[in-house]
Protein backbone atom coordinates (compact mmCIF):
# COMPACT_ATOMS: atom_id res chain seq x y z
CA UNK A 1 0.00 0.00 0.00
CA UNK A 2 2.89 2.38 0.77
CA UNK A 3 4.42 1.75 -2.67
CA UNK A 4 1.04 2.42 -4.31
CA UNK A 5 0.75 5.70 -2.40
CA UNK A 6 4.21 6.88 -3.49
CA UNK A 7 3.37 5.99 -7.10
CA UNK A 8 0.15 7.99 -6.72
CA UNK A 9 2.17 11.05 -5.66
CA UNK A 10 4.49 10.58 -8.64
CA UNK A 11 1.56 10.42 -11.08
CA UNK A 12 -0.14 13.40 -9.40
CA UNK A 13 2.77 15.83 -9.13
CA UNK A 14 2.66 16.89 -12.77
CA UNK A 15 -1.07 17.56 -12.80
CA UNK A 16 -1.94 18.67 -9.27
CA UNK A 17 -3.03 22.09 -10.55
CA UNK A 18 -6.08 20.42 -12.10
CA UNK A 19 -7.25 19.36 -8.64
CA UNK A 20 -7.07 22.97 -7.42
CA UNK A 21 -8.26 24.47 -10.72
CA UNK A 22 -11.04 26.63 -9.18
CA UNK A 23 -8.50 28.10 -6.73
CA UNK A 24 -6.00 28.70 -9.54
CA UNK A 25 -8.44 30.49 -11.84
CA UNK A 26 -9.97 32.50 -9.01
CA UNK A 27 -6.51 33.44 -7.74
CA UNK A 28 -5.39 34.77 -11.13
CA UNK A 29 -8.51 36.91 -11.35
CA UNK A 30 -8.17 38.30 -7.83
CA UNK A 31 -4.39 38.64 -7.45
CA UNK A 32 -3.36 39.69 -10.97
CA UNK A 33 -6.59 41.25 -12.19
CA UNK A 34 -6.96 38.82 -15.09
CA UNK A 35 -10.39 38.74 -16.72
CA UNK A 36 -12.24 35.43 -16.73
CA UNK A 37 -11.28 34.68 -20.32
CA UNK A 38 -7.55 35.13 -19.70
CA UNK A 39 -7.63 33.16 -16.46
CA UNK A 40 -9.50 30.37 -18.23
CA UNK A 41 -7.03 30.36 -21.11
CA UNK A 42 -4.09 30.07 -18.70
CA UNK A 43 -5.76 27.00 -17.21
CA UNK A 44 -6.55 25.57 -20.65
CA UNK A 45 -2.99 26.08 -21.92
CA UNK A 46 -1.70 24.35 -18.81
CA UNK A 47 -3.79 21.25 -19.50
CA UNK A 48 -3.19 21.21 -23.26
CA UNK A 49 0.52 21.30 -22.48
CA UNK A 50 -0.07 18.31 -20.22
CA UNK A 51 -1.78 16.50 -23.09
CA UNK A 52 1.28 17.10 -25.28
CA UNK A 53 3.57 15.80 -22.56
CA UNK A 54 1.40 12.75 -21.97
CA UNK A 55 1.46 11.97 -25.69
CA UNK A 56 5.26 12.25 -25.76
CA UNK A 57 5.40 9.84 -22.83
CA UNK A 58 3.89 7.13 -25.04
CA UNK A 59 7.13 7.00 -27.02
CA UNK A 60 9.66 7.28 -24.20
CA UNK A 61 8.33 5.10 -21.37
CA UNK A 62 9.99 1.99 -22.81
CA UNK A 63 13.26 3.77 -23.65
CA UNK A 64 14.25 6.08 -20.80
CA UNK A 65 14.96 5.18 -17.18
CA UNK A 66 11.74 6.17 -15.41
CA UNK A 67 13.46 7.07 -12.14
CA UNK A 68 16.11 9.37 -13.64
CA UNK A 69 13.52 10.89 -15.95
CA UNK A 70 11.23 11.60 -13.00
CA UNK A 71 13.98 13.41 -11.09
CA UNK A 72 14.74 15.69 -14.03
CA UNK A 73 11.05 16.41 -14.69
CA UNK A 74 10.29 17.19 -11.04
CA UNK A 75 13.14 19.71 -10.89
CA UNK A 76 11.91 21.24 -14.17
CA UNK A 77 8.40 21.58 -12.70
CA UNK A 78 9.78 23.39 -9.67
CA UNK A 79 11.69 25.83 -11.88
CA UNK A 80 8.60 26.49 -14.04
CA UNK A 81 6.46 27.18 -10.97
CA UNK A 82 9.12 29.50 -9.52
CA UNK A 83 9.22 31.51 -12.75
CA UNK A 84 5.40 31.63 -12.86
CA UNK A 85 5.34 33.45 -9.52
CA UNK A 86 7.01 36.48 -11.13
CA UNK A 87 4.89 36.65 -14.30
CA UNK A 88 1.96 39.07 -14.31
CA UNK A 89 1.23 39.31 -18.05
CA UNK A 90 -1.47 36.92 -19.36
CA UNK A 91 0.21 35.88 -22.63
CA UNK A 92 3.58 35.18 -20.99
CA UNK A 93 1.89 33.18 -18.26
CA UNK A 94 -0.02 31.16 -20.86
CA UNK A 95 3.28 30.25 -22.53
CA UNK A 96 4.96 29.36 -19.25
CA UNK A 97 2.02 27.27 -18.05
CA UNK A 98 1.91 25.45 -21.39
CA UNK A 99 5.58 24.52 -20.90
CA UNK A 100 4.84 23.56 -17.30
CA UNK A 101 1.95 21.43 -18.51
CA UNK A 102 4.11 19.64 -21.08
CA UNK A 103 6.68 18.78 -18.42
CA UNK A 104 3.99 17.68 -15.99
CA UNK A 105 2.14 15.66 -18.62
CA UNK A 106 5.34 13.79 -19.41
CA UNK A 107 5.78 13.02 -15.72
CA UNK A 108 2.18 11.83 -15.39
CA UNK A 109 2.67 9.58 -18.42
CA UNK A 110 5.76 8.07 -16.83
CA UNK A 111 3.86 7.55 -13.58
CA UNK A 112 0.95 5.88 -15.37
CA UNK A 113 3.31 3.54 -17.20
CA UNK A 114 4.81 2.41 -13.89
CA UNK A 115 1.39 1.92 -12.32
CA UNK A 116 0.40 -0.26 -15.29
CA UNK A 117 3.25 -2.65 -14.40
CA UNK A 118 1.95 -3.23 -10.87
CA UNK A 119 -0.32 -6.03 -9.76
CA UNK A 120 -3.99 -4.95 -9.63
CA UNK A 121 -3.41 -1.59 -11.28
CA UNK A 122 -7.02 -0.64 -10.49
CA UNK A 123 -6.11 -0.42 -6.80
CA UNK A 124 -3.16 1.86 -7.48
CA UNK A 125 -5.32 4.11 -9.65
CA UNK A 126 -7.78 4.17 -6.74
CA UNK A 127 -5.03 5.41 -4.41
CA UNK A 128 -4.12 7.95 -7.09
CA UNK A 129 -7.62 9.42 -7.02
CA UNK A 130 -7.61 9.34 -3.22
CA UNK A 131 -4.49 11.52 -3.17
CA UNK A 132 -5.82 13.87 -5.84
CA UNK A 133 -9.25 14.41 -4.32
CA UNK A 134 -8.01 14.53 -0.74
CA UNK A 135 -5.27 17.11 -1.25
CA UNK A 136 -7.26 18.89 -3.96
CA UNK A 137 -10.04 19.53 -1.46
CA UNK A 138 -7.54 21.03 0.97
CA UNK A 139 -6.23 23.33 -1.75
CA UNK A 140 -9.63 24.53 -2.95
CA UNK A 141 -10.74 25.42 0.58
CA UNK A 142 -7.58 26.96 2.05
CA UNK A 143 -5.66 28.54 -0.86
CA UNK A 144 -8.20 31.19 -2.05
CA UNK A 145 -8.33 33.04 1.33
CA UNK A 146 -4.52 33.39 1.24
CA UNK A 147 -4.41 34.92 -2.25
CA UNK A 148 -5.30 38.52 -1.21
CA UNK A 149 -2.32 38.57 1.19
CA UNK A 150 0.27 36.50 -0.67
CA UNK A 151 -0.84 36.81 -4.30
CA UNK A 152 -0.12 34.12 -6.88
CA UNK A 153 2.95 33.05 -4.88
CA UNK A 154 0.72 30.92 -2.66
CA UNK A 155 -0.77 29.19 -5.71
CA UNK A 156 2.49 28.17 -7.31
CA UNK A 157 4.25 27.57 -3.99
CA UNK A 158 1.69 24.89 -3.19
CA UNK A 159 2.62 23.14 -6.45
CA UNK A 160 6.33 23.47 -5.64
CA UNK A 161 5.74 21.92 -2.22
CA UNK A 162 3.99 18.94 -3.80
CA UNK A 163 6.89 18.41 -6.23
CA UNK A 164 9.43 18.56 -3.39
CA UNK A 165 7.51 15.98 -1.37
CA UNK A 166 7.39 13.69 -4.40
CA UNK A 167 11.14 14.10 -4.92
CA UNK A 168 11.71 12.92 -1.35
CA UNK A 169 9.56 9.84 -2.01
CA UNK A 170 11.20 8.90 -5.31
CA UNK A 171 14.19 6.93 -3.91
CA UNK A 172 11.84 4.67 -1.96
CA UNK A 173 9.63 3.62 -4.89
CA UNK A 174 10.40 -0.01 -5.85
CA UNK A 175 12.06 -0.76 -9.17
CA UNK A 176 9.34 -2.30 -11.35
CA UNK A 177 10.27 -4.70 -14.14
CA UNK A 178 8.99 -4.19 -17.66
CA UNK A 179 6.93 -7.38 -17.51
CA UNK A 180 5.49 -7.30 -14.01
CA UNK A 181 2.24 -8.79 -15.34
CA UNK A 182 3.22 -11.56 -17.76
CA UNK A 183 0.45 -13.45 -19.53
CA UNK A 184 1.49 -17.07 -19.61
CA UNK A 185 1.59 -18.78 -22.97
CA UNK A 186 0.59 -15.65 -24.89
CA UNK A 187 2.69 -12.94 -26.47
CA UNK A 188 2.19 -9.52 -24.94
CA UNK A 189 0.50 -7.42 -27.60
CA UNK A 190 -1.69 -4.36 -27.76
CA UNK A 191 -5.39 -5.09 -28.30
CA UNK A 192 -6.11 -2.02 -30.38
CA UNK A 193 -9.90 -2.08 -30.84
CA UNK A 194 -10.93 -2.54 -27.20
CA UNK A 195 -8.14 -0.17 -26.16
CA UNK A 196 -9.50 2.48 -28.54
CA UNK A 197 -12.96 2.09 -27.02
CA UNK A 198 -11.52 2.45 -23.52
CA UNK A 199 -9.59 5.58 -24.55
CA UNK A 200 -12.76 7.08 -26.06
CA UNK A 201 -14.68 6.35 -22.86
CA UNK A 202 -11.93 8.02 -20.84
CA UNK A 203 -11.89 11.12 -23.06
CA UNK A 204 -15.68 11.53 -22.96
CA UNK A 205 -15.94 10.98 -19.21
CA UNK A 206 -13.22 13.51 -18.40
CA UNK A 207 -14.54 16.07 -20.89
CA UNK A 208 -18.09 15.90 -19.53
CA UNK A 209 -17.01 16.25 -15.91
CA UNK A 210 -14.32 18.90 -16.30
CA UNK A 211 -16.41 20.94 -18.72
CA UNK A 212 -18.99 21.38 -15.99
CA UNK A 213 -16.48 21.59 -13.13
CA UNK A 214 -14.64 24.50 -14.75
CA UNK A 215 -17.83 26.57 -14.63
CA UNK A 216 -19.28 25.22 -11.39
CA UNK A 217 -18.59 28.44 -9.49
CA UNK A 218 -20.32 30.55 -12.14
CA UNK A 219 -23.19 28.06 -12.26
CA UNK A 220 -23.61 28.38 -8.51
CA UNK A 221 -23.52 32.17 -8.72
CA UNK A 222 -26.22 32.21 -11.40
CA UNK A 223 -28.28 29.98 -9.13
CA UNK A 224 -28.00 32.61 -6.39
CA UNK A 225 -25.40 31.02 -4.12
CA UNK A 226 -22.55 32.94 -2.47
CA UNK A 227 -18.99 32.46 -3.76
CA UNK A 228 -17.62 31.49 -0.34
CA UNK A 229 -20.32 28.86 0.06
CA UNK A 230 -19.67 27.50 -3.42
CA UNK A 231 -15.92 27.14 -2.72
CA UNK A 232 -16.64 25.31 0.53
CA UNK A 233 -19.05 22.95 -1.19
CA UNK A 234 -16.55 22.17 -3.95
CA UNK A 235 -13.70 21.56 -1.50
CA UNK A 236 -15.70 19.39 0.88
CA UNK A 237 -17.15 17.47 -2.07
CA UNK A 238 -13.61 16.66 -3.20
CA UNK A 239 -12.99 15.09 0.20
CA UNK A 240 -16.11 12.98 -0.23
CA UNK A 241 -14.57 11.84 -3.51
CA UNK A 242 -12.09 9.90 -1.37
CA UNK A 243 -14.94 7.48 -0.64
CA UNK A 244 -15.08 6.60 -4.33
CA UNK A 245 -11.35 5.90 -4.39
CA UNK A 246 -11.53 3.76 -1.26
CA UNK A 247 -14.42 1.81 -2.76
CA UNK A 248 -12.26 0.98 -5.79
CA UNK A 249 -9.42 -0.18 -3.54
CA UNK A 250 -11.82 -2.41 -1.59
CA UNK A 251 -13.91 -3.70 -4.50
CA UNK A 252 -11.13 -3.97 -7.11
CA UNK A 253 -12.34 -6.46 -9.77
CA UNK A 254 -14.33 -8.77 -7.49
CA UNK A 255 -17.46 -8.25 -9.58
CA UNK A 256 -15.61 -7.45 -12.78
CA UNK A 257 -15.35 -4.03 -14.37
CA UNK A 258 -18.49 -3.80 -16.50
CA UNK A 259 -20.96 -3.58 -13.61
CA UNK A 260 -19.05 -1.00 -11.52
CA UNK A 261 -18.42 1.15 -14.60
CA UNK A 262 -22.04 1.07 -15.74
CA UNK A 263 -23.44 1.88 -12.30
CA UNK A 264 -20.78 4.53 -11.66
CA UNK A 265 -21.27 6.41 -14.93
CA UNK A 266 -25.08 6.30 -14.74
CA UNK A 267 -24.86 7.61 -11.17
CA UNK A 268 -22.60 10.43 -12.41
CA UNK A 269 -25.08 11.37 -15.15
CA UNK A 270 -28.04 11.41 -12.76
CA UNK A 271 -26.10 13.51 -10.25
CA UNK A 272 -25.12 15.91 -13.04
CA UNK A 273 -28.78 16.40 -13.92
CA UNK A 274 -29.33 17.25 -10.26
CA UNK A 275 -27.46 20.52 -10.89
CA UNK A 276 -30.64 21.78 -12.57
CA UNK A 277 -31.81 22.45 -9.02
CA UNK A 278 -28.64 24.29 -7.92
CA UNK A 279 -30.68 27.18 -6.50
CA UNK A 280 -31.51 24.82 -3.65
CA UNK A 281 -28.41 24.72 -1.44
CA UNK A 282 -29.00 21.11 -0.40
CA UNK A 283 -29.33 20.04 -4.05
CA UNK A 284 -26.05 21.77 -4.96
CA UNK A 285 -24.36 20.02 -2.03
CA UNK A 286 -25.80 16.63 -2.98
CA UNK A 287 -25.00 16.88 -6.69
CA UNK A 288 -21.39 17.95 -6.13
CA UNK A 289 -20.73 15.29 -3.48
CA UNK A 290 -22.23 12.54 -5.64
CA UNK A 291 -20.29 13.65 -8.73
CA UNK A 292 -17.02 13.72 -6.77
CA UNK A 293 -17.58 10.22 -5.40
CA UNK A 294 -18.55 8.84 -8.80
CA UNK A 295 -15.68 10.61 -10.57
CA UNK A 296 -13.13 9.11 -8.18
CA UNK A 297 -14.80 5.70 -8.53
CA UNK A 298 -15.07 5.47 -12.32
CA UNK A 299 -11.71 6.86 -13.46
CA UNK A 300 -9.54 4.13 -11.85
CA UNK A 301 -11.58 1.45 -13.63
CA UNK A 302 -11.25 3.12 -17.04
CA UNK A 303 -7.53 3.70 -16.52
CA UNK A 304 -7.31 0.08 -15.44
CA UNK A 305 -8.86 -0.95 -18.76
CA UNK A 306 -6.12 0.87 -20.66
CA UNK A 307 -3.47 -0.77 -18.49
CA UNK A 308 -4.90 -4.28 -18.99
CA UNK A 309 -4.89 -4.05 -22.78
CA UNK A 310 -1.14 -3.31 -22.78
CA UNK A 311 0.68 -4.38 -19.65
CA UNK A 312 4.06 -3.07 -20.82
CA UNK A 313 2.80 0.36 -19.81
CA UNK A 314 3.05 2.16 -23.16
CA UNK A 315 -0.69 2.47 -23.76
CA UNK A 316 -1.34 3.43 -20.15
CA UNK A 317 0.66 6.54 -20.99
CA UNK A 318 -1.62 7.03 -24.01
CA UNK A 319 -4.50 6.79 -21.53
CA UNK A 320 -2.92 9.75 -19.77
CA UNK A 321 -3.00 11.65 -23.07
CA UNK A 322 -6.68 10.85 -23.64
CA UNK A 323 -7.46 11.94 -20.10
CA UNK A 324 -5.67 15.29 -20.49
CA UNK A 325 -7.34 15.96 -23.84
CA UNK A 326 -10.69 15.40 -22.17
CA UNK A 327 -9.79 17.63 -19.22
CA UNK A 328 -8.71 20.41 -21.61
CA UNK A 329 -11.39 20.04 -24.29
CA UNK A 330 -14.33 19.87 -21.88
CA UNK A 331 -13.85 23.41 -20.53
CA UNK A 332 -13.05 24.73 -24.02
CA UNK A 333 -16.31 23.43 -25.49
CA UNK A 334 -18.23 24.43 -22.37
CA UNK A 335 -16.92 27.99 -22.66
CA UNK A 336 -18.35 28.23 -26.17
CA UNK A 337 -21.65 26.75 -25.01
CA UNK A 338 -22.26 29.00 -22.01
CA UNK A 339 -21.61 32.02 -24.21
CA UNK A 340 -24.57 31.33 -26.47
CA UNK A 341 -26.68 29.01 -24.34
CA UNK A 342 -27.77 28.62 -20.74
CA UNK A 343 -26.23 26.39 -18.07
CA UNK A 344 -29.27 24.16 -18.51
CA UNK A 345 -28.03 23.16 -21.96
CA UNK A 346 -24.51 22.59 -20.61
CA UNK A 347 -25.82 20.28 -17.88
CA UNK A 348 -27.91 18.28 -20.35
CA UNK A 349 -25.03 17.92 -22.84
CA UNK A 350 -22.68 16.82 -20.05
CA UNK A 351 -25.14 14.12 -18.97
CA UNK A 352 -25.52 12.94 -22.58
CA UNK A 353 -21.75 12.72 -23.07
CA UNK A 354 -21.52 10.68 -19.87
CA UNK A 355 -24.01 8.18 -21.31
CA UNK A 356 -21.91 7.95 -24.48
CA UNK A 357 -18.88 7.30 -22.27
CA UNK A 358 -20.72 4.42 -20.61
CA UNK A 359 -21.57 2.91 -24.00
CA UNK A 360 -17.93 3.17 -25.12
CA UNK A 361 -16.68 1.52 -21.91
CA UNK A 362 -19.17 -1.37 -21.96
CA UNK A 363 -17.55 -3.58 -24.62
CA UNK A 364 -13.90 -3.46 -23.42
CA UNK A 365 -14.93 -3.92 -19.80
CA UNK A 366 -17.14 -6.93 -20.59
CA UNK A 367 -14.38 -8.34 -22.79
CA UNK A 368 -11.99 -8.31 -19.84
CA UNK A 369 -14.64 -9.71 -17.50
CA UNK A 370 -15.05 -12.72 -19.80
CA UNK A 371 -11.29 -13.32 -20.07
CA UNK A 372 -10.07 -15.97 -17.60
CA UNK A 373 -7.52 -14.74 -15.08
CA UNK A 374 -4.43 -16.85 -15.57
CA UNK A 375 -1.82 -14.84 -13.78
UniProtKB/TrEMBL annotation:
Keywords: Cell membrane, Membrane, Transmembrane, Transmembrane helix
Domain of life: Bacteria
Organism the protein comes from: Thalassotalea litorea
Subcellular location: Cell membrane
Family annotation (InterPro entries): MFS (IPR011701), MFS_dom (IPR020846), MFS_Efflux_Transporters (IPR050189), MFS_trans_sf (IPR036259)
Membrane-topology annotation of the record: Multi-pass membrane protein
Domain Major facilitator superfamily (MFS) profile stretches: 194-375
GO cellular component labels: plasma membrane
Phylogenetic classification of the source organism: Bacteria, Pseudomonadati, Pseudomonadota, Gammaproteobacteria, Alteromonadales
MF term (GO), any: transmembrane transporter activity
Record protein name field: MFS transporter
Keyword Membrane: yes
Primary localization: membrane
